Amino acid sequence: MAVLLVVLWHWFPQTGGVNWAPNGALGVDLFFVLSGFLITSILLSFRSAVDARRKRAAFALGDFYLRRALRLFPLYYVVLLGAWLWPAGSTGTAIRTDWPWYAVFAQNLRTFETRAWDGFLSHFWSLAVEEQYYLVWGLVVLFLPRRILPALALSAAVVAIATRAIGVAVSNGEIAAMGFWEILTPACFDGLGLGSLLALAREGEARASIWHRALRVASRFAPIPALLVIATYRLEPAVWYLFGRTAVALLALRLLFWALDGAASASGPGRWLEWEPIVGFGRRSYGLYVFHNIVPFLVTSVAGALGRRFVSAAWLLAPLESPAVARCIWALLLVALAYGSWRFLEAPINSLKNRFTP
Questions:
Q1: Which among 29, 37, 34 has a CA at the least distance from the CA of 203?
Q2: What are the CA-CA distances from residue 292 to residues 98, 124, 143, 320, 336 (Å)?
């Protein structure tokens, strides 16, 4: 669901229609909540091993980092290498000069500094945010007292709103300028923080804790206010940039409660989402996300090269002039790349994670 929203945002006009709502932001923020919940749950399992003296904290942290690296690094660096090797001047990206920023997952900082989106690699800013979150939150969960972790996770939402408030204040009403503040990691803390807080609240007997009850109540009453905030994206952008991420995070929490409480499996939409082909797409969602912004560039580049090389066969490329046909071709290529990447690159390496368990 999260990836589909981002694909809609990048493949269709962002001026309205299917993208009247900020689908790209909705998808990314939904994923941040899911990521916060998943990653914190994994870290808590490592923390339990540390508390039971089955592992030392430093080794647990190293195992956690290795698991994340095995899952994310192979495809990421293969794509970066491919972009770097592509003929210079034709990619529309600054990968040849900015590769050190990409290499250390700091491209969101580079984009913020230059105030320019980097072509088909522009969506990699969210991968940088994720890595920076892993780096810091792993240290926090494994080394700080458990009792303060929920308060830290909740305070992250306050930090996020404060960061975006600074962006709104200094942007003088310029919507594009506000958008660059949103890619800073602290500005994404509400989704990551609330997802993390839910994982902390559900740990052991904590389901009866005040944190768990508060999150449940907040998510239960969130939908209507959250939808009103989302509507401000077109009507009052400053309100959206201040509170939009928090609103989406609360909606995502509602979805998580729906799934974790078992209500999803008993419903029609839930059973559909548990259908194996749909689960298969979810399993390959990382590849779908990485490639989705690159596919249109590949199709256009290859079609252009063929048109120049075989002028007499230019009629074969005419269907690409239809936006509907072009998007169908993009979709087929995207699925093929994601499934191929999973089969031949990601899955074999991902299986090595079993060596680094709590």
A1: 37
A2: 21, 11, 37, 17, 11
Residues 225-270 have pLDDT tens digits of 999 999 999 889 999 999 999 999 999 999 999 988 887 777 888 8
- H/E element, 43: helix 23-51
85 exposed, middle or buried (CB, 10 Å; 0-12, 13-18, 19+)?
A: exposed
Q: What percent of the chain has pLDDT over 70?
A: 96
DSSP state of 12: S
Q: Which two tokens stand for residue 341?
A: 């990447």
Burial (Cβ within 10 Å: 0-12, 13-18, ≥19) of residue 57: middle
Query: What is the 3-class SS of 153-178, one letter each residue?
Result: HHHHHHHHHHHHHHHHHHCCCCHHHH
Q: How confident is the model at residue 315 (pLDDT cuts 50, 70, 90)?
A: low
pLDDT tops 70 at residue 313: no
Find, among 16, 30, 29, the residue nearest to 255 by Cα.
30
CB 1 within 8 A of CB 34: no
